[in-house]
Amino acid sequence: MTAARWREERTVRIDGTELAVWGREEYPDAGTAPHVVLVHGFEERWDSWEPLVEQLPQTARVSALSLPWRAGSPHTWPRHGDAATWLLRALEVLDRPPDLFVGHSFGACALLQLLARHPGHPYHSVPATLVAPVWRVSDPSLTPEFFAEARTRFRYTITEGLNIQLRTRGRIVSPALLRIMAAKVLKRVEPEGFLQFYLELARLPELPLDRILAPLLVVSGLDDAAAPGGDLEVLRSRVRNVTLCQTPHLGHFCQTQQPGYVAEQITDFLPMLRLPHSAEEMRTT
């Protein structure tokens, strides 16, 4: 299997923030191929999806969004709208509506917000795969102890994500160098990014999940501290059509570390959506 080649298809700037759509250079006929749209997580990039995309069916058209919470952002984007608003703006840049959303972590929660809070929008019924969503039923009161614990968890996730991105690009760094690199990232991210991240998550327990009509597939690890299994069971009980796939071996960044398994779950989910191809035709050989 060869690595996918990408091109930047469209870019817009709204309120000083850039939104972009990247697509595979070679994809099937746009009129018949299912269109899969990828929504990256906090401090990730559109190309964080590359390991997964290489495992997805070649018969699918894939578009990866570059969103305001990407790696390198100053994270001032919430001054001009929440995550769902920015996602909606990015989707309007597409030249063709999606047939399937795939979102990771914070991006998965942005999808949940979009599907729950914009019931009259055409995207409201588009099926979605949520990979390791950081949705929670509720969080404790904001005490100094909780704030310190939340900050520790945030720092760990950012550091682990950086390490995985480096390894994906063939760079193996020592623990000491990783700490130095992570400290530089956190120096940029924490002043606004940490607060904005948790302010977004604090809105999630109040989502009107009963409004979600789209079929959802949730792929997550049982031992993923950032996406607690019990909370995802509650999510399944509140949304009309949810398939929950949880296994012990999946990490928070499973779309990068275990892309074959995640792609298999998505492929198996596609026939449920009545897209143009059968399960056998959609599988990558």
Automatic annotation (TrEMBL):
InterPro entries: AB_hydrolase_1, AB_hydrolase_fold. Residues 36-264 form the AB hydrolase-1 domain. It comes from the Bacteria. Pfam families: Abhydrolase_6. SUPFAM superfamilies: alpha/beta-Hydrolases. This is AB hydrolase-1 domain-containing protein. It comes from Streptomyces kronopolitis.
